[in-house]
Design a protein that fits this description.
The N and C termini lie close together (about 10 Å). The chain is of the alpha+beta class. α2 packs parallel to α3.
Length: about 675
């Protein structure tokens, strides 16, 4: 690693002073002696932290984007995600590395704890949680029209083996993990637990199967007190999602494991750099908090209903409940040891109601894996969790994750989708010949199908950066073997134009399947293929790709990777720089779905069951005629609405420029990575 005193002293005092000043909102003055990439970081960091650019709310919360009219996983720009928080923490770790000022990092973590991790009052009934029966079973279904999913209280569920040790280790039954989505400005109007007015309110959207895209979601409060939702009954929004004889007011949160793992990853580097500066004590408390977050993150390693891992077929009654006990192979029978798509927890709002629940997830996407975080939590003394099995679980996860990448690597080098322990979300039996990974079934597009989750190149760059980072830190030959094949494939699909601009892959197409995994003799996956079908110049993914090339290039001494990283970063800086950071023009043809009515033939549009009529906090009626737009009438007040309205009226597809927080942070860090590892080795 580049931790020498010479490397540290290379950063001029003037740059450090300037960065500290900009954090306080003062004017930026960058030392002319700073390297080109140090100056770029300083410039980009200032733009992100400049209040005039609107990246943060009045509470200091990072918005998903300063722009409000944007629809992707968040359906409004002034929502935020645990993803954005993790990138903010990461960015401030880099700031501390180059300035010695750890104040902004401490503020970022404190803000995350205050707003994004549910407080004691937000999760009030965990004391009633029963680890012997973590949750009642409800199947998943292919289409939103198949919902609500009936609760089946008789279907066997497994046992939660980590609840007791977490309670003992931390003295609480409350969960220490981020909920994934927040309505920062209370744009929807639900407020906190139905009060209608509190800002920074937890909400949720996706609830109804793999086909439910953002265009078909029904946004609802994470704490449903029945103030809104179905009219004329005590159901709130719950009866859209689950079928029950009696509905109870309740709170429910969902964790996005990749974000919590990224926060741990960021804190590892912060701890390394603070120690080099003799300032480790300044961030020691949040290092402990990152370790704690990693301990709870293990919930994402379990089957959704804690059932046995592998060949879990025949439906929820045939698939056996897991005991949570460790077998002769040293593994728990209901733990897959991968970072799945989520873990969730909830309970009654009424403290006298006496129930709470927790679930993991059966679905594993390669894009969420983080071997760097697994290595940190299993081997680094400052990060080893307090629970007796925490570090050991992360060590097993590290091994399993690297194997997962190898199992899913195509003949060309790209990484395919993932695997599930619950075929169809209901422990069904897959088609004959479906390849397996430790008994879990290959899924070309895990979790969501509109668009298919394996088609976005961003998952490739994000996830393989973590592999490269882990390889850089450890020299693991197995990680290098995956990168040795992935790097040439990704590099060959980067194209530069005569005008100095460039494209990287954006959309992928997959054919074939991997070989069934044999850890003693991995297959060649000769029939699994990937093809790049679309390209663009997305700044966030460009940054992630460049960072992957940097870490691999430095560790493997690969000149071509280092050269390509610089060429990409130079081209992005030249062509995408604007007053707010970095952006490129985007066409969003999918915005035509704003006013799509439900189409039973295609399954597109917002499905609301016949006879279900309700209202939301924006005052919209929700019924079988509902559209994405009609459910969100405030969008017509957006300053960019006329531009979109003209498109919906038949005009040309407009171009949009977005400054997603994560992308701006990733670009800033890419510049510092190049400065730290290549400009000033």
């Amino acid at each position: 690693m580049n931790n020498s005193p010479r490397a540290l002293s290379r950063i001029t005092q003037a740059v450090a002073t300037a960065l500290v000043a900009m954090a306080a909102g003062q004017a930026l003055a960058v030392d002319v002696q700073a390297t080109a990439f140090e100056k770029r970081f300083a410039t980009q960091y200032k733009k992100i932290k400049d209040p005039a650019n609107g990246y943060f709310s009045q509470e200091g919360i990072p918005y998903h984007s300063p722009e409000t009219l944007i629809v992707e996983a968040p359906d409004y720009g002034h929502e935020t995600t645990s993803e954005a928080y993790s990138f903010w923490i990461w960015l401030e770790a880099y700031h501390g590395r180059y300035t010695g000022d750890w104040g902004p990092l401490k503020k970022a973590w404190a803000n995350m704890e205050k707003y994004m991790i549910p407080s004691v009052s937000d999760q009030p009934t965990n004391s009633f949680y029963n680890a012997a029966k973590p949750a009642s079973y409800a199947g998943e279904y292919p289409l939103p029209k198949d919902y609500p999913a009936p609760l089946d209280f008789s279907a066997p569920v497994g046992q939660d083996p980590i609840a007791a040790e977490l309670e003992t280790a931390y003295g609480t039954r409350n969960i220490y993990g981020m909920h994934w989505l927040m309505d920062v400005d209370n744009w929807y109007g639900y407020g906190k637990c139905g009060d209608g007015v509190t800002r920074a309110a937890f909400i949720n959207t996706f609830q109804r199967g793999a086909q439910e895209s953002v265009w078909e979601t029904v946004p609802h409060p994470s704490c449903d007190t029945f103030r809104w939702g179905r009219n004329g009954g005590s159901q709130g929004f719950l009866s859209l999602f689950t079928g029950d004889a009696n509905y109870s007011k309740q709170w429910r949160y969902t964790n996005a494991p990749d974000a919590d793992a990224r926060a741990v990853e960021a804190m590892y580097w912060a701890n390394i750099w603070a120690k080099e500066q003799g300032k480790a004590a300044e961030i020691a408390d949040i290092v402990k908090s990152a370790s704690k977050m990693g301990d709870y993150l293990r919930y994402s390693m379990f089957d959704k209903y804690f059932k046995k891992i592998g060949n879990c077929v025949g439906g929820p009654y045939s698939c056996q409940a897991g005991t949570g006990q460790t077998g002769g192979n040293g593994l728990r029978d209901n733990q897959h040891y991968l970072l799945s798509w989520y873990y969730s927890w909830g309970g009654a709002t009424d403290t006298n109601a006496g129930w709470a629940w927790r679930i993991g997830s059966s679905h594993n996407h390669f894009g969420y894996q983080n071997p760097m975080a697994a290595w940190v939590l299993s081997t680094q003394a400052d990060f080893k969790p307090k629970s007796p099995s925490g570090a050991g679980d992360w060590g097993k996860s590290l091994t399993r994750q690297i194997e997962f990448y190898r199992w899913l690597q195509s003949a060309e080098g790209g990484i395919a989708g993932g695997a599930t322990n619950s075929w169809g979300g209901s422990y069904a039996t897959p088609p004959n010949g479906t390849p397996t990974f430790y008994g879990m079934f290959y899924e070309e597009a895990p979790v969501y199908h509109d668009p298919e989750s394996n088609t976005w190149f961003g998952f490739q760059a994000w996830s393989m950066f973590r592999v490269a980072e882990y390889y850089y830190a450890t020299g693991d030959a197995k990680a290098k073997a995956v990168l040795d094949k992935w790097i040439p494939w990704a590099s060959a699909n980067v194209k530069f134009k005569d005008n100095g601009n460039y494209t990287i892959p954006s959309t992928l197409e997959w054919t074939g399947q991997p070989d069934t995994w044999n850890p003693n003799s991995p297959g060649a996956n000769a029939s699994l293929h990937v093809k790049v079908t679309k390209s663009n110049a997305d700044v966030g993914i460009t940054a992630a790709l460049a960072r992957t090339l940097i870490y691999y290039g430095v560790k493997a001494n690969d000149a071509a990777s280092k050269t390509l990283a610089k060429k990409l970063l130079d081209a992005m800086w030249t062509n995408a720089k604007d007053d707010m950071g970095l952006s490129v023009a985007e066409k969003r043809d999918d915005y035509l779905r704003f006013d799509d009515a439900y189409d039973a033939g295609t399954g597109t549009g917002v499905y609301i069951p016949s006879g279900w009529v309700g209202t939301n906090a924006q005052g919209a009626t929700i019924d079988s005629n509902t559209t994405f737009l009609s459910m969100r009438p405030k969008y017509k007040q957006d300053p960019d609405w006329p531009k979109l309205q003209a498109y919906l009226n038949g005009g040309k597809s407009p171009k949009w420029r977005y400054h997603r927080f994560w992308a701006q942070a990733d670009a800033a860090m890419a510049m510092l990575d190049y400065a730290r590892l290549i400009e000033t080795p």
